[in-house]
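User: Batch of two.

Assistant: Item 1 of 2:
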Amino acid sequence: MNKKISGIIKSLLLSYIVTLLILLLLSFLLLKFRLSENIISLGITLSYVISCFLGGNIAGRLFTLRRFLWGLLVGVIYFIFLALISLAVNHQLTSDITHFFTVLFMCALSGMLGGMLSSQK
């Protein structure tokens, strides 16, 4: 059980590091090129998908059975932390419930896809 928890934590840490790097890149591009709000929104959405995919992929590599479920779990936990941070900063989750569930499904499905497409060590 301890190996599983540490594997999930490693996958989540990788996901958040990738998110941080993508957001830093977006910040730099925004500063230099004054990108539109639509492009920034797309970049943030892509950071969710890429990060969850990579986290799910790492989880799938660490666990040999039911890799898609481990990837799904990473995507859902990633989203939960994201929602909790949003709640702490904004004192509300979101004003648009459709957006909330869209991001949840994107995180969960991209994590699951990462787990499904992972290969063994």
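Item 2 of 2:
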Amino acid sequence: MKKTFFLLSLSALLFQSALAQDTIAIKPLKKVLELVIPREGGANAASVAWHPVLKRYYAAMAGNIEFFIGAYSTTGKLLTKTDQETLFDVRGLWYNPNTKTLQMNGYGTYGWAEYKLGPNGAPASVKILEEGSFQPDEQSVGAYDPINKLVYFFNEDGNIEKYNALTREYKEQLDLTLGYSAQEAEDEIEVDNSIYIDDYNTTTVVYTGIKKAELGLLNTVNREIELYDLETGSITRKFSLPESAPVETALNFAYANGIFWLFDTEARIWKGYK
């Protein structure tokens, strides 16, 4: 009797342990910074980038070459003029340490480009790297990986498309298991991303540089940011957002300098969470 009880107890403990290992702890995020857009123009924001040399954030609106882009201090103070224009219909925006420039991908066939910055750090002109469509969709927001020299895009099937950052050529696709950890994905007979794709911000993936949690997606239904392993395509970390955090189903989501950014379309403020 005692032996049977011991075996049953041991089995229960092992089962609970297995469940605990499969469950990903959700870490709450708190707002740490704001970047205020100072003027009208554009309903949606494109992206936020961190310039590690100038120690500045760059925040760009999406939709028109005359819309606003600004440089901000580490405390969120606007350092450039309020009439500064993007000069390019920006979607993804990133700092490339290999070229030491701010680069971006644009709407539709705008292609990829980079900024030449003026003495005050404001974008003075745009150099087109290549014109054309080098992304899955017109609104796709690119995320740059400086280690592998790739740019990642989230496509309509819920997977990641990789493009060579130097040639702009499509390289390959990384299949994600949306909403699943590696163990949960193994336990499922078939994971169908089409069932869950509408739960996410469908234009944007972010690159964090965190080992085994390199790619980030915004789950707008659960109000969580999920991080995925670049090798397995499965969730490894989750972050919950405050109830007051703005979440949009397209654009308005970024990652820069260790901070997740969400754009409040009504207040016209990028809100940073960490």
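The domain at 25-273 is CATH 2.120.10 (Neuraminidase).
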